[in-house]
Amino acid sequence: DDVLAREFELRRTVPFEDDSLALVLPCRTDWKWVPLVSDTKGHHNRMVSLARAEAPGEPEVAVEVKYILLHREVRLEDWVDYFFGVQGMAACAGQLGEYESRTVLDTVVEYRAEDGRPFVGRLAFFKNADRIWLTAGTAPREKYERWAREFGVAAVGAGPRQPRAG
């Protein structure tokens, strides 16, 4: 707990000034918060980036929060299997858990970046109303173990939050 309090912070944001997307992302205090590039909110059939933080000097090591709007009811596990297939990801491990009073499918995956380099990611998925949320901590394979703790904190602690009043 002392290490978490000293080295991590809860970063709060309201992407696109939309209260329904308000979220918190726990990450290390020295990680760089990357601003959203464009408002892709509302685009159908693709993940919408809501927040991203990068390790100092290592932009390929990052934690992100994204969501996708569902157009019909789907089981979380079925959607995640579909997502992995489309993205070319192979699940190495996974389990359902209860974090922050919600059911989360917490997984470790391997995949190849666009340039062909092998990456490992810790991806946590959960449903909230008509959205599936994804918290992803990713790094090149050779750097994953170095950052696994940070990815774990993000996986269990990130999620939607009501923005503070005032």
Short summary of the structure?
This protein has 166 residues and is an alpha+beta fold.
Describe this structure in words.
The strands form two sheets. The protein has a seven-stranded antiparallel sheet, with helices on both faces. The protein contains three helices and ten strands. The chain is of the alpha+beta class. Strand 6 and strand 7 (102-112) form a beta hairpin. The protein has helices at 2-7, 76-87, 144-157; strands spanning 8-13, 23-28, 32-33, 48-55, 58-69, 90-99, 102-112, 118-128, 131-140, 159-160. The mean pLDDT is 89.
Query: What structural category do the secondary elements indicate?
Result: alpha+beta
Secondary-structure element sequence?
A: HEEEEEHEEEEHE
Strand order of the largest sheet: 3-4-5-9-8-7-6
Q: What is the number of E strands?
A: 10
Defining traits:
166 residues, 7-stranded antiparallel sheet, 3-stranded antiparallel sheet, 3 helices, 10 strands, 19% helix, globular
